[in-house]
Amino acid sequence: MAVFIHKDRANKKMQKRESVLLVENTCSRVFVEGTGVNDSIGIIFLNPTEIYLKKELRKGDWSDIGTSSGAAQRNFITGYVEKASALQLQYVIVFGCNHSEFDLVKQSDYKIFARNSSMHVIQHTVKNISYHAANIFNLSENQSVVINGFKMHSNSSVLIKTGENVQISLSDPTQKQTAVSFTYKNKNQTVNVTNAEGASFVFEYSHEESQWIWCVVGIVIGVIFVIGVVSFIIFKRKKVTVKSKNIKIKNGVKVGTEMFI
């Protein structure tokens, strides 16, 4: 197992504190290379973060955690952060990639969409597809939050994908609720999560409705434009005849001329 540290400042050095490796507050990326094909994990810190890495040898017997038996020992690396609030610690975990693939992941592709006492949302954009990954919490019965057109009414974990179609995947991470609900395009959707054990539920929507609306708007604008052009041409070609007559008051004095078409 190997750990690769990407630092923002080259002049900062890692310090060792007993068996703990201290990476000072310039760390932006960490890649932990596993022993298997898909065992590696990459972590991107959206803000430079001070982290600690601890390598330790753990020993035990398989009978402690399962039905099989036999002594086993492995080296483990534990990473942790000290004295960081939930609002300060912002990170993205990338699974199933090797070191070179992880280097291609751009930190600029990830943005903080929302960060408050009700939800944490990260936006990830790849070409013409955007993802919104959210954890929603602390919502009271009558509260709701809006994420990219979806009005969420329940505490939940949500992933919204917007591309050719719109897809939402949501679950109840607490596994204590009976239902989670949301509203999209003025339509309410309630999901029964009783005994779901944290399973995700996926819903997909097309853009056809909004495309039809813009199509109708375009047709109306086009018709108005054509009517305006035709009216202008007719008005320009129309021959206007102006007639006039003198106006006299009763005493015979001419006071002006009345003109009419």
TrEMBL record:
It comes from the Eukaryota. GO terms for cellular component: extracellular region. InterPro entries: Gal_mutarotase_sf_dom, GH-type_carb-bd, Lyase_8-like_C, Lyase_8_C. The chain crosses the membrane at residues 211-235. Keywords: Lyase, Membrane, Transmembrane, Transmembrane helix. It holds the Pfam family Lyase_8_C. GO terms for molecular function: carbohydrate binding; lyase activity. This is Polysaccharide lyase 8 family protein. GO terms for biological process: carbohydrate metabolic process. The keyword Membrane applies. The keyword Iron-sulfur does not apply. Residues 112-180 form the Polysaccharide lyase family 8 C-terminal domain.
